[in-house]
Design a protein that fits this description.
The structure is a homodimer.
Chain A (H helix, E strand, L loop, with lengths): L1 E5 L3 H13 L3 E6 L11 E2 L3 H5 L3 E6 L7 H10 L3 E4 L2 H6 L1 H10 L4 E2 L10 H11 L2 E7 L2 H12 L4 H10 L8 H4 L2 H14 L2 E2 L15 H9 L2 E12 L2 E12 L11 E8 L3 E8 L3 H16 L10 E2 L1 E3 L2 E7 L10 E6 L2 E4 L2 E2 H11 L5 E5 L3
Parallel strand pairs in A: 1-2, 1-4, 2-3, 4-5, 5-6, 8-13, 10-14, 10-19
Antiparallel strand pairs in A: 7-9, 7-11, 9-10, 11-12, 15-17, 15-18, 15-19, 16-17
C-alpha cells in the first residue's frame, strides 16, 4: 500500500522510520512546509500532488494545528483516500465533519494516536463499548504537566524551574500554554468521550483549570495531607449528557496515579462488567506516537472497520465534587465553604462542577488556584 | 450465532449473562457436570450433543483444569467449531496441539481471558508485535497473592490471616496452592511469552517461588528499606530463548506497582518503539473475565484473524538478578553473597536466575524464603 505523509516533524519522521524498518507500507510522497526542507525525492511542498496520485490509498496527517491540516484531510477523504492522523486539536474541533466526510466517501479516518501517544486508549474504549457499558473515564492525559508536577513533588523544584527543565528535555513547547493550562487535556477528554459514547461534545463547553498558578502554599498543603497533585481530565456519562472537566487534583499517596512518574500518561475506564481498567505509558514522543499511527495504517490496510461512528451530540453537564480554592477574593464561594484553611484558602463542600468553575472564573487571577479534592 | 458453553460456574454464568443482556450471540446449549445442576432446557450433561449440533458455531470452554476440558476443546475444533476459553492451565499445557488443531480444521481458538481476566493484555501483546519488537514483559499476574500482600503491607495482617480473608471474599480457593506458590503465574508467563514471540515455552521449565513462606522478618526488612513485596512473573526475550521466572520481589515505594491494591493485576510490556506500556485491572472474577470471553466471541463472529500462531519452541534461559535469601542453611550461596543481613539472611550479588533458583531449591524448606531485589 502506498501512503503519503503530511508533515515531517517529530511524528511524521517517526512513522516513516517504522514503516521503512517493518516494510508495512511504502511512503511515496511526503509534504514539507517549504523548499528548504526538501531532503529526498519523495518530498514536495505541493499538496495537490497527493490528491492527484491515485496510487496513494492513505494520507497520514502529522502537520498538527487546525489549518491547513483540516482542509487537507477533508480533501483527502473527498478523493477517497483513507486518513490517519495524530492531530488531536483538529479531530476534537472538526470531529463530526471529518467522520461524516469519511462515511460519505466510503473511506475511514483513524486517530488512535491523538490521545495518549502510543497507549491503546481509544482502541480500548472502542473495544469495551462493544460488549459493555462505559460509565466514566479519567486520566493523566498530558505528559508535560505531569513531568512538571513530578519534579515539583519528587525533586522539590518550583514551577518555573520545572517548566524550564521540561522545555530543555523537549517535553514542553516554546509556548507551553496548551499543555499547562488544560487545553490539550480538554481536546483529549472530548475525543475520549466521543469514542466512548458515539457522540460529539463541544470542547468549548469543557470547563478547565491548569497548573501554572500552583504555589508553594498549595504544594505544602498537599504534602501536609499526604497528597500529590496531578492534572486530570474527566468524563462521566450522565443520562444523555457527559460531565467533562479538566482540573488539577489532590491524589492520596496510596493511589497508584499519585506515582505516575515523569512525562507518563495514565488512563482509567470504568464500565459495568469490566470494572476499572488502567493504561499507562508514554503519552507523546516520536516513536510511541508513531507506533499508534502505524497501527492505524495497518488496520486501514487490513480493512478493519473504523472504531467509532457518530450517533448524536451530547451536552456537557456537571457532577458534584469538592474543591480547594485559593484566591485573594473568595466572593461567591461563601455558601459552599466546608473548611477555611486560612484567610485566602478554603475547602468547599461537594458542589456541582459547573457552579464551581463559573464562580472560580469570576475571581481567577495569577495569584489564585483551584484544585479538585480527589474522591479516593 | 449459536454458541455452546461448557461449564456453568463463575465464568460460564457470567458469559451467559452478558450475552443475554447484549444480544451478541445465542447460548443454545450449556454443559453441566451432573444431573442435579440441570436448571433450564439448554442444559445437558452430554457433551456429544454439542458436537452433533451443526447450528453451534462456537464452543466456550469454562470448565477449567486439564481434563476433560482439553479433550472437549480438541473434539470441538475437529468438528470445525471455533473455541473460546478462559482456561489458562489447559492453554499453557496443550498450546501447540490446540493451535495446530485449530489451523488444521480452519477454525480459530481464542483465549484472551486466560491472562489478566478482563485486562486486554494478550490483545495488546498481539497488537504490539505486529508493528514493534517486544523485548520483555512482567506483571502482577495473580490477584489472590496480591490481595494477601496488600493486606500484609497496608493492614499489617500476617500471612495466615490474610489468606483466610481472601478465602472468605472468594479471592482464594479452598486449596490455594496454585495461586500462592506461583503455578498460576507460571501459566500466565508461558502464555504471554507464547503470544509475544509466536512460540511455545514449556511451563515446567519456568523456575518459581511463591509467597507462603514470607515471614515477619522479611516484611520488616521490606518496610525498613522502603519496599513493598509483590509476586511478579517475568518474560525477557534473549536471542532465540526466553528468560522466564516467577518470584516475589521487593519494589521501591515510589514505583507504581508497589501500590497496585487488593486483588488487582498489573502488566507491563516493553518494546523498542513504544517503550513501556502498563495495563491494570481486575485479573479475575465473573464479569471481568466474562467480558474478555465475550470480546473473543465477538471477534470469532466478525471473522477476525486469530491473534497468534506458532513459529517454533523456545528454550527457557536465565538473566542476572539480585536476590534476598533467608534460610537456616545457605550452602551454595557463599560465592554470591553481597551483604550478610544476619546469620540466616543474605543479599546476593547479581547472579543468573537459573543458578539462583537451583541453589535455592536445594536448601528450600518451610522456614526459608527467596525474594528478588527489584531493578528499579
Amino acid at each position: 500500500m502506498n501512503i503519503g505523509i503530511l508533515g515531517y516533524g517529530v511524528v511524521g519522521k517517526g512513522v516513516d522510520d517504522i514503516l521503512q524498518e517493518k516494510g508495512l507500507a511504502s511512503v511515496t510522497r511526503i509534504l514539507v512546509k517549504d523548499e528548504s526542507e526538501l531532503q529526498d525525492s519523495r518530498m514536495t511542498t505541493d499538496f495537490s500532488l497527493f490528491i492527484k496520485d491515485d496510487s496513494i490509498m492513505c494520507i497520514v496527517e502529522c502537520i498538527g494545528g487546525l489549518e491547513p491540516a483540516h482542509t487537507y484531510c477533508i480533501q483527502a477523504l473527498q478523493a477517497h483516500k483513507h486518513v490517519v492522523t495524530s492531530n488531536k486539536a483538529m479531530m476534537a474541533r472538526f470531529y463530526d465533519e471529518l467522520l461524516e466526510t469519511a462515511v460519505k466517501h466510503n473511506v475511514t479516518i483513524r486517530f488512535s494516536a491523538c490521545v495518549g501517544g502510543g497507549i491503546p486508549w481509544l482502541d480500548q474504549l472502542a473495544s469495551v463499548k462493544k460488549t459493555d457499558t462505559i460509565e466514566s473515564f479519567y486520566g493523566i492525559m498530558n505528559g508535560t504537566s505531569n513531568y512538571i508536577l513530578h519534579q515539583i513533588f519528587m525533586n522539590h523544584l518550583d514551577f518555573d524551574t520545572a517548566l524550564r527543565q521540561a522545555k530543555q528535555l523537549g517535553y514542553a513547547e516554546a509556548d507551553p500554554t496548551a499543555d499547562i493550562e488544560g487545553f490539550d487535556v480538554a481536546n483529549k477528554v472530548a475525543l475520549s468521550a466521543n469514542v466512548a459514547w458515539n457522540t460529539m461534545i463541544d470542547i468549548n463547553d469543557i470547563p478547565m483549570c491548569g497548573i501554572s498558578t500552583i504555589s508553594k502554599d498549595d504544594i505544602d498543603y498537599a504534602n501536609n495531607n499526604n497528597y500529590r497533585i496531578r492534572l486530570l481530565g474527566h468524563g462521566i456519562r450522565q443520562g444523555n449528557a457527559v460531565c467533562a472537566y479538566v482540573c488539577p487534583e489532590f491524589i492520596p499517596m496510596d493511589h497508584p496515579i499519585a506515582h505516575v512518574p515523569l512525562n507518563y500518561n495514565m488512563f482509567e475506564c470504568n464500565s459495568a462488567y469490566l470494572g476499572a481498567i488502567r493504561l499507562m505509558g508514554q503519552g507523546a514522543g516520536r516513536y510511541p506516537t508513531a507506533h499508534n499511527v502505524v497501527k492505524d495504517i495497518r488496520l486501514v490496510k487490513s480493512h478493519s472497520t473504523p472504531f467509532t461512528s457518530i450517533v448524536s451530540r451530547m451536552a456537557v453537564t456537571s457532577a458534584n465534587r469538592r474543591f480547594y480554592i485559593r484566591a485573594n477574593d473568595l466572593s461567591g464561594f461563601e455558601p459552599y465553604i466546608e473548611t477555611r484553611i486560612n484567610d485566602t484558602t478554603i475547602l468547599t463542600k461537594e458542589m456541582d462542577t459547573t457552579t464551581a468553575f463559573t464562580l472560580y472564573k469570576g475571581i481567577q487571577n495569577k495569584n489564585s488556584c483551584m484544585i479538585g479534592v480527589s474522591l479516593w
